[in-house]
Amino acid sequence: MSAPLVGVVLVSHSAEVARAVADLAAGLTGGGGDVPVAPAGGGPDGGLGTSSDLIAAAARSVDRGAGVAVLADLGSAVLTVKALLADDELPSGAKLVDAPFLEGAVAAVVTASTGADLDAVAAAAADAYTYRKA
Amino acid sequence: MRTTGERTTRTAMNATPDPEAPVDAAFLRRWLESATAAVEREAPRLTELDSPIGDADHGTNMRRGFLAARTAVEQEPPPTPGGVLVLIGRTLISTVGGASGPLYGTLLRRAGKELGEEQAVSAARLRDALRAGVDGVATLGGAVPGDKTMLDALLPAVDALTGALDAGGGAADALAAAAAAADEGAAATVPMRARKGRASYLGERSIGHQDPGATSSALLVTALADTARGDG
Q: Each residue of B72-90: pLDDT tens digit?
């Protein structure tokens, strides 16, 4: 039995963005589709915003015991993850990763698919800040 | 702790609380009533302030959060003032949906934890707890005074509260001073340039608008002063 993979949670103000980025990252990972990835998008009323309940549920759903990398898009998404972590309301191995949302998500999922540990997944996602485009 | 229920009932029925320790669970429940009413009344204004420099949801978000907090506290009233603040904070984090949720949630939860299990505390203990809560907001959001955020109302409020209590003022007068300082602090955000949150993307264009978060902070501190004066 292989070791459990790091889970990835994608927190966006928009349910559609979170879902689409999760699909994109999983799609680009090809055969490594075993990585548990969960979107947590939109606010408590379903509109644009951040839902702490969705974030906590997503983190629990991808926790296989190897840690959970949480990526967030902006403002309240970042602050809500931090507030949840400060009060131990996410799985013990959960970590907010400082990374660009889309590029970081792809890097995190691809790296997690190799069986890398949480620190390596977080480092790969953070490294996405250095990808220059012009 | 078996006497908790009985003591809570007595406290709730007691219209003249201990002057040395005026802040009990009933006091903070009255504050929540007053704050929720103020947020409901001012929600359109908060959203209007949030329109030119934010995403026009501050009033809606605050209204949703405080109504949920009031319901949560009504359904299962915590027996201690710390417990009331922790429950309100937790509810705001899970229901507001914007940055004000984790920020106010952290403020109140941190303050509530500072108060511990005590049944009633002095104004000075409330001040210390609020100071710890406001420090928590600063740490979470990474803002400093002058960044055009809720800290620009909250920090002057805690300073004024401290000054008034140190000068020997009573709880009601000290909280009134805090409310005045919060109002002034909120008004002083108008010429500031936003350095945090969505408004910071606007750069110079954020100048000339009062910060919605500082405005709601002033409302919440004013509700505290109203509660202490007895007409919350």
A: 999 999 999 999 999 999 9
pLDDT tens, position by position, B198-217? 888 888 888 999 999 999 99
Top-level CATH class of B19-229? mainly alpha
C-alpha B56/C-alpha B221 separation (Å) is 22
Q: How far is A73 from chain B (nearest CA, A)?
A: 12
* pTM metric for this prediction: 0.89
Q: Where along chain B do its domains lie? A: 19-229
Residue B215: which of B138, B152, B159 has the closest Cα? B152
* CB contact at 8 A, B25 and B8: yes
Structural domains in chain A, CATH included, are 7-130 (3.40.50.510)
- B contact test, residue of A79, A81, A85 with most B CBs within 10 A: A79
**Interface contacts A/B by beta carbons within 8 Å:** 59
Q: Are B181 and B157 in contact (CB under 8 A)?
A: yes
CB contact under 8 Å between A75 and B197, yes or no, is yes
Tokens matching residue A26:
């999983």
Task: Give the ipTM of the model, two decimals please.
Answer: 0.84
Interchain CB contact of A88 with B (< 8 Å): no
Q: How confident is the model at residue B231 (pLDDT cuts 50, 70, 90)?
A: low
Hey, what amino acid is at B179? A
How many Cα neighbours within 13 Å face the side chain of A17? 21
Across the interface, which of A43, A49, A80 has its CB nearest the CB of B93? A80
Instruction: Find the radius of gyration of the CA atoms of chain B.
Output: 17
